[in-house]
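Issue 218. Parser rejects a valid record. Input:
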Amino acid sequence: MASQDDLVHVSLYYESLCPFCRAFINDTLFPLHQGPVGKLMDVELVPYGNVIEVQGKWMCQHGPEECQLNTLEACALEEAEPEDAFAFVACIERNALAFEKEIQPCAADAGIDKLADSIQKCAEGAKGKKLFQKMGKKTQALRPPHQYVPWVTVNDVPLEGDYGNLKTFVCAAYTAGPKPRACFETQESDSVSKGSPAVLMRGTTFSKIDVQ
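Output the parser choked on:
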C-alpha cells in the first residue's frame, strides 16, 4: 500500500444540492475511491461551491437548504474518520433533497451511527458555522479560482471540464509504484462532464441565511 506522502491528492470543491456535483460524487468519485484506484488517492471534500457572502449573510446558489447541507457535510468531515465521512456524504448526496430524513440512515450505512447526533448538533451550532467559513476560505484560496462546480483538482492542478476522466489523471499522477490493472482499462469519459452545463457563478439566483 502506498504511503500517505505518495498518494495522489484529489480535491472536490462542490455544493451539496448541485445536481452535477451529486452525480459526480456518486457516479465517479466515490466508486473510484472504493475500487483499486482508490488506494492511490487521498480525497479532500470541500462543500461550499458558489456561495457569496454579503454583509454577514451567506447566499447559497440552491437556497438556504444548501447552506444547511453544506454545513452538515462539513461537520461530518470534521467529526468522523475520512473514509467514514466520505461514505456518509455519498449516501446523503444520493437523496440530498430529503437530507434531514437521511442523516440517521446514512450514518448507520457509513458505520458512524453513534456520531449522528454530534454531527447534527455541530451543524446546528456555532461549530458548524466556523467549519462552513473554513470551507469558504479553502474555496476562495483556489488559484486559479474555481469557475463552476464541481471543480476538481489533482495535486492542486484543476481538471476543469475533464473531471469525468478522473481515473486517467489519478493513474497518470501516481508514480510511487505499480499501478492496479484498472488503470490500464479503457475508460469512457463520465457523462457528467459530457454536455452537462456548468453550474456557473454568474447569472444565477441566490438565497440568504444569516451568519450569527
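Fixed in the parser; the record now loads. The chain is about 40% helix and 15% strand.
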